[in-house]
Amino acid sequence: MQQRLDGKGMSKLVSDADIVLDCSDNFATRHALNRACVEHRKPLVSAAAIRFDAQLMVFDLRKPDAPCYACLFPEDGEVEEVQCSQMGVFAPLTGVAGALQAMEAIKLVCGGGESLSGRLLLLDALGAEWRTVRIARDPGCAVCGVG
Ligand SMILES: [Zn+2]
Questions:
Q1: From the CA of 140, how far away is ligand 1's center (Å)?
Q2: What is the CATH number of domain 7-134?
Q3: I need a surface site. Which of 3, 68, 118, 145 has the fewest CB within 10 A?
Q4: 72-90 burial by CB neighbour count: b if 16+ within 10 A, else e?
């Protein structure tokens, strides 16, 4: 069932969740989910894949110093919206990204292992290369900061 949620509906849905997994393909949904997760201090596990690149992020918003999605991609940022429905995606990559996302969610539920929180995991499927980049909370973030 496909359901379109307004901000209030999404906020209610997130408030009832333990952990939120963002599997969407557009910035409007990602930012709305991020706002609801910041509001309710819920961990957000975000995965994205396009062409031969994937990225995975964990925003453990239960922690006061954790960055949020908007710290990395500001809502008013100059980021070009590209969707896999137009640009294509290497099919096995979505499986890899989804499995990694599930792995991080299970670790958050169990409280075990080292969370990806505060880091961005990047996978270049063509080059067969992985790398992580540290992400800091932006004190001026319009969503989680003082604005
Ligand atoms: Zn933020």
A1: 8
A2: 3.40.50.720
A3: 3
A4: bebbeeeeeeeeeeeeebb
